[in-house]
């Protein structure tokens, strides 16, 4: 994990206005997708392989990814 302030970060359009449970994703980085907690932008960044991130996002769009507690 690393801090990467030089990227252009984007918050999900599904994020609520309360600031809870939001993440930000940086785009335009070949082969990896950096993801961080929007409440802690100076904190650690996780990197996912682009293919794995694509599968995850597709699952979210289809409603097949559960949140905490199986919701």
The number of E-state strands comes to 4
Overall structural class, as computed from helix and strand content, comes to alpha+beta
- Quaternary form: single chain
Query: Kindly state the mean pLDDT as a whole number?
Result: 79
Strand order of the largest sheet: 1-2-3-4
Identify low-pLDDT runs: none
What's the helix-strand series? Answer: EEEEH
Distance N terminus to C terminus? 28 Å
Note the beta-strand portion: 15-25%
Number of helices: 1
Task: Characterize the main sheet.
Answer: 4 strands, antiparallel
Shape: globular
The tally of structural domains comes to: 1
Q: Could you estimate the helical fraction of the residues in percent?
A: 10-25%
Radius of gyration: 13 Å
Question: Could you characterize what this model shows?
Answer:
With 71 residues, the chain is of the alpha+beta class. It has one domain. Helix content is 17%, strand content 24%. It has one helix spanning 50-61; strands at residues 9-11, 23-26, 32-37, 46-49. Strands 1-2-3-4 form a 4-stranded antiparallel β-sheet. It is globular. The termini are far apart. The mean pLDDT is 79.
